Amino acid sequence: MVGLDSKLSTVVGGRAATMFHKAWGMVTVADLLAQYPRRYAHRGEPTALDELPDGEVATVVASVVKVTSQSFKTRRGTIQTVVISDGRSDMSATFFNQPWRAEQLRKGMRGMFSGKVTRFKGVAQLTHPEIRLFDEDEPMPDPAVDAERAKQWAMQPLPVYPATASIPSWKVWDSVRHALEVIEPDAVLDPLPEAVRAEHGLLGYAEALRLVHLPNDDGDWRRARETLRFHEAFVLQAALLQQRAVSRESHTLPRRALAGGFADRLDDALPFELTADQGLVGAEVAFDLARDVPMNRLVQGEVGSGKTLVAVRAMAIVADSGGQSALLAPTEVLAAQHLRSIVRALGPELTAELMPTLLTGQLSAAERKKALLRIVSGQARIVVGTHALLSDAVEFFDLGLVVVDEQHRFGVEQRETLRAKGKTPPHLLVLTATPIPRTVAMTVFGDLDISTIRQLPAGRQGIESFVVPLAEKPNWINNVWRRAREEIDAGRQVYVVCPAISPREIEEGDELEEGDGEPGPDEQGLAPKPPRANVAEVFESLQHNAVLTGASMGVLHGRMTADEKDAVMAAFGARELELLVATTVIEVGVDVPNASTMIVLDADRFGVSQLHQLRGRVGRGGVPGICLFVTYAEENSLARDRVAAVASTLDGFELAQIDLELRREGDVLGSRQSGGRSSLRLLRVALDGDVIAQARDAAASVIEVDPTLRLHAPLRDALARRLDETERQFLSKG
């Protein structure tokens, strides 16, 4: 019996199954049926040939205009050129040594042509395309005999699938149609409970699969996609909520604050009032810590909103119970900055008692040995470090809390390695200054409780942001350096951020925007894009810039040693340096209240969240901030829109939504980050928030009653199909 879990080769044959697996990783019949059409064409509907993207495999509906054949001048053989048209523009399809095409493709014939789009002398063409003429399948009814049937024939939706050079769209369609013919109807069980399906007016699963691939009209596939989109959200949310239920079955040591203990003394010593958001989130964290179920909480907040202080208070609570806390930071600069912030928040007395300790890969052997002894003995109640914390040599006396800063910089494996160092499962607190849209939070962090800090502490100044468009105003760069001089003369300090360390070396861990290869002509073939701004050349240039004569300058980037970086940051913090040329190592955590100006060169080479993070480094004291986004990106380009979006608002949550809409959401169940290939089929996190929320509520009603899905076998089977081994590990360690 053929079912969803049957091997694909049993339906399409071994050769086709191998091709499908190589192209899309398909293994089972379910994988094939989940290859939904990317769009629908119609026999009578023209395709915009002049809008086809170069370099992509495209499938078009067009009519044959003419076929010509000519011999090569310098070698044996012939070339056949078929001109096809959408009624508005033409393109050519070329074949080599196939003179029979002239007989096959007669003027006026209509069909689907599939191949890679290239351009020759400015004219779009398909080389050796696959062809399926409509009259091969079913001749067009004579409109004079049956006008209604002729209209239906012309407008019946034809699924167009993702294709490769060796697998045209209709080969996928043929395989899907055959699979739907041979699969047993009883083998396609619906993972949605009947009550949920009825409440949301959805089709049955089997019917939705049939209509999405074999629609009779456009209404069929629209209803089918609506159902399958909900299915996808429902199964994904069930997976996340099931893992959440499993994690809450494990037990750990409750960590409660003691009257007059470290946490109370920390609160008493604070020289300012906590914001209402800080107080609320702090109470949520304290409640979680006091339970015997491990906390799994994400705290998101604007740059400078006080997330670190919330974490320090949690560490003090854990210390009250005799436990230790470990803060994992993505860079040595940030780890050192966190240590300084913690020491400043604790004050001299608490620092002496809690002994905050730094552990990074750049410590000397003697310093490392001393730090390891403090950690294993329990002297160090607070440990701050980088990836060095994950080493087998690091042992804790009683690890009660793991704090992960900037979660997107770490893989799940790294986070889990640190958590495994606790004798009992430690509590987990994840911090991020990259605000997360609600739909992403539900989809990516669905197994975490989420707290949000929106308010900024009193006294924070505003930041003005401006785009400096060098593509149209190249001379404005001089105004940028004059403004930097004004700020320096006023006793303030300036950051200059570059996307690279040297002409051929970007900052480690940075993922620059697409199109950031070597400089070359832009997409329109206009002027070459300037080389990436880099720390080495910009620093040398500014040292010889007459406007900045006499200004004390330094550099900071990830290739420097820990001591070199600490020395530079200490000098900048002490106002010994007035201008710092740096990479994104200053993106998060660096806190210099006197720094008023952020100049980001080649701002279009950074993502929205990075630009927002960089801007958050200024305006942190009593000095208003100014941020200048310098870009060569053309007006109305996506890169320019991205920069302009950041300049238009300081609301990180609004920017996060804009960022999501400008980019793809990435793989929601795996290590890939946004911008990568999404593992989602029909669901789009940026657009389907309501669907995700409804599906989450529906899935929660099932998981609460039946967390192991013993009574919901079709859903259990759907989860097994949906999650590969990597995704299962991601969830189990989430």
Q: What are its keywords?
A:
single chain, 734 residues, alpha/beta, 7-stranded parallel sheet, 39% helix, globular, disordered C terminus
Give an overview in words.
The chain is of the alpha/beta class and 734 residues long. The protein is 39% helix and 18% strand. It contains 26 helices and 23 strands. The strands form five sheets. Strands 11-12-10-13-14-9-15 form a seven-stranded parallel beta sheet, sandwiched between helices. It has a six-stranded parallel beta sheet with strand order 16-23-22-17-21-20, sandwiched between helices. The radius of gyration is 30 Å and the shape is globular. The C terminus is likely disordered.
Q: Give the averaged pLDDT, no decimals.
A: 83
The major pleated sheet works out as: 7 strands, parallel
What is the β-strand count?
23
Distance N to C terminus? 37 Å
What percentage of the residues does DSSP assign to strands (E)?
15-25%
